[in-house]
Description:
Layout: H1 15-19, E1 25-28, H2 32-43, E2 49-52, H3 61-64, H4 96-109, E3 116-117, E4 122-128, E5 131-136, E6 141-144, E7 146-149, E8 171-174, E9 188-192, H5 196-205, E10 211-215, E11 222-223, H6 232-240, H7 244-258, H8 260-264, H9 268-285, H10 289-294, E12 307-308, H11 312-316, E13 321-324, E14 328-332, E15 335-338, E16 343-345, E17 348-351, E18 365-367, H12 374-378, E19 396-398, H13 411-432, E20 436-439, H14 441-455, H15 459-462, H16 483-491, E21 498-501
Parallel strand pairs: 1-2, 1-7, 2-3, 4-18, 7-19, 8-17, 9-10, 9-17, 10-13, 11-12
Antiparallel strand pairs: 4-5, 5-6, 14-15, 15-16, 20-21
Amino acid sequence: MNMSVAREQFEPAGAWAAQGRQPRIAIIGAGFSGIGALIQLRKQGYTDLTCFEKAEKIGGTWRDNHYPGLSCDVPSHFYSYSFEPNPDWTHRFSYGPEIWAYMNKVADKYEVKRDIHLNCGVTDLKYRGPQWQLTTEHGDVEIFDLVIAATGVLVNPAYPAIKGLDSFAGLQWHSARWRDDVSLKGKRVGIIGTGSTACQIVGAIAGEVAHLDVFQRTPHWLNAMPQKKYSATWRFMLRWVPGLQLAIRHFMRWLMEHTFARATLGDEKQQQRVQDACEAFLREQVPDPELRARLTPNYKATCKRMIMCSDYYPALQQDNVALITDRIDEIVPEGVKTADDRVHELDVLLLATGFQVSDFILPTRVTGENGLELADFWRDAPRAHRALTFPGFPNFFMLEGPTGVFGNTSLIDISEHQIACVIAIIDRMKQEGVAVVAPKQEAYEAYNRAMSRDIGKSTWATGGCDSWYLDATGTPNIYPWLPQRYREDMLNPDFSEYRFEQLPVAVS
């Protein structure tokens, strides 16, 4: 890599498309989206690709998270690449290590690791039209025609703002930074958080620890995880019966989009079905009325991402497990002090407190036209045009960006369609010989007005909860329509929403 770049080293106006050369494309992040982008771009003839990964291995979320009980809540045959089905999934809902192994297998098969620079985080991106100047954490500088951010959402751990958090004398770590070198057997353990991650951890470790305190601020609605181990016969059929895997994938997508997705977006009958199922599961799993009351949320079941976990409620009823609902006042060297003035003495404190979901590519500094910084453009409410592009940031794309399709669906499926849209835009640049593409300001504003209007009708907004989908403005930062609409928009982009320009403008 070049250690410094002079202004004269930039390509002249017109850049790659007009010159008939390959565009230099930078991909930031080597998780599912980044690897998928490498594979699909190369399939479409774009070969000058460089992927920057800050960690020492590929894998994104499934590399960073390896806590006990980790599994995916999207069915295996839907939570995988459409172009690389896997007949060898061992369970209906895959466990973390198997997902990470699948990702590595795909990367090896398509030989994309050669394009990935490991231990090479990106600290700065600066638009110097019509190209981007990229600076790594090592101080190396390179020039690219296009940048695709595939940094994901569940990246930067969120730590709770609790007094004395650093004063704890025992061992303490975040669930996304799990200590594999520490055994919890026989220890007094506390866990802060009761979301999906915490539920999986509690179910996995309750049987080995001496005592477990589960600190609950807000109860969550749960439903059963319909887990199933696949037999060798079934895996044989998946491998050799034509079309079977594809049919299962389509069915899983249909099922998820016509149940929970519709329940969140105004279908009252579907919402009531989900509500009834969660209430029935709680009654069935927790016979003690006092404990059941403490585990019953005061908001609609579809207000947060649905938690599917079959062993959390049973774990809470073990003799060595206690559900603590008193407010945490502070962390002290001995453990956790609650509002009843009791100190819960611990050897290990686990933080299952989620992620900084509004960061996306941040804290990488991204500077677009006229010196506009992405952090300032977003302020407290990150927004995008179709969760993919931003006015004022030409030739820059973000997979799984703000206001994207989240909830209980496959982000791999969504990112594949986003990649298809990016390729369609790049193809258009090539065909017309243009140097610059970015969404029009008016298109961006109209799209986000429509989103803000319709998200207010969803249970994400009306369900009465405080979910991680809410940004600092109190608005759910999530797609307000059905996922199939988003897929159609990605596969059939409206090019009139974008400005395609022959010459770079507003160079900072």
